[in-house]
């Protein structure tokens, strides 16, 4: 896990070498980000930016603690350019994306070692097995706390922090339980016992892993559609303490309450995509034993679901789904993605084995990206009965119709 220092030019004030070369370094980093983004992401949309602005259109004062859903190693690359449109004084690092790249991508690792290490704090994940001995685990935990303390000091200098609190991209597509790190830097405890609260900004990242085209340069990377949804600012809210509760018990309960609230907000910041709306119906059809499906069915089910979901509060959609032409375009992209991935053939015959497989977390996105996308919206439905009802009702109605 990495925590990004977002106003890096301020952090490097005393680094003479960096001061001499900071402009070409930052320009080079932004160019590299743009190139990397284009090779991995076909399209990006931003929603919710109004939550960061005053009524006069100016950015809200920082510093912020940005807490983002973590999907892929390219998350930082996909998000940064849009935040710079909101406030050009913000600067973000790349290391959170670089550290998970394949070893063959030596150029990016060289950049990481030479430059990007100045912009991030690495947080060791001892809860996931990092550290080979009790002594090393204790050392890593001490280093983590030192980094958290530096982040708190940075707040006092107006420097933002960006964190991916799930601590992993190896999931089944759902928002995983949030780690306690976001609790540790959501507030500053002063010597007199008072607490300064840090404005927390939740970022809901949603990817369509099916509908993007292949990398136009190498024709081997499946590009994605990315959707960035910024939530309303919030603050740490301490849990009410029970009478006679020990300090250790209270802190544990307080951490659990805070991380649970953060996770629920990230779940709620989903963007509805064609891979979710149509993908859930494809999966439902496969589970019902159907062996073929048509594009017309997918157009109908997506239109019905968009129409009904738009009546519900707090729902965000891929912009292309808001009109008939855009929906048809997305269905074409989704269908081509299904064919390219081997879910359907030219005649619409479903590969039931591929559609229904449940892979391990490490390769879930690779082995069944359709179910990966659907799992995200099904998790949202588990939290919201109104959304689950729309999916169940429209899905069953459509299946009954095609069976006649």
| Span between termini | 52 Å
Helix content: 40-55%
Fraction of residues in β-strands:
5-15%
Number of domains: 2
Q: What does the average pLDDT come to? A: 80
Shape: elongated
CATH architecture of the largest domain: 3-Layer(aba) Sandwich
Structural class: alpha/beta
Q: What's the SSE blueprint?
A:
Blueprint: E1 2-5, H1 8-11, H2 16-40, E2 41-47, E3 64-68, H3 75-86, H4 95-98, H5 106-114, E4 120-122, H6 134-156, E5 161-163, H7 181-184, E6 187-189, E7 195-197, E8 199-208, E9 224-230, H8 247-268, E10 271-272, H9 274-287, H10 295-309, E11 316-317, H11 324-341, H12 352-356, H13 364-367, H14 369-383, H15 385-403
Parallel strand pairs: 2-9, 3-5, 3-8, 10-11
Antiparallel strand pairs: 1-4, 1-5, 6-7, 8-9
Helix pairs in contact: 9-10, 9-14, 10-11, 10-15, 14-15
Short précis:
With 404 residues, the protein is of the alpha/beta class. Helix content is 48%, strand content 12%. Strand 6 and strand 7 (195-197) form a beta hairpin.
Description:
The protein has helices spanning 8-11, 16-40, 75-86, 95-98, 106-114, 134-156, 181-184, 247-268, 274-287, 295-309, 324-341, 352-356, 364-367, 369-383, 385-403; strands at residues 2-5, 41-47, 64-68, 120-122, 161-163, 187-189, 195-197, 199-208, 224-230, 271-272, 316-317. Residues 1-22, 88-109 and 111-116 have low confidence and may be disordered. It has 15 helices and eleven strands. Strand 6 and strand 7 form a beta hairpin. The radius of gyration is 22 Å and the shape is elongated. It has two domains: 2-268, Glycerol-3-phosphate (1)-acyltransferase; 272-403, no CATH class. Helix 10 (295-309) crosses helix 11 (324-341). The strands form three sheets. A seven-stranded mixed beta sheet has the order 2-9-8-3-5-1-4, with helices on both faces. The protein has a two-stranded antiparallel sheet with strand order 6-7. With 404 residues, the protein is of the alpha/beta class.
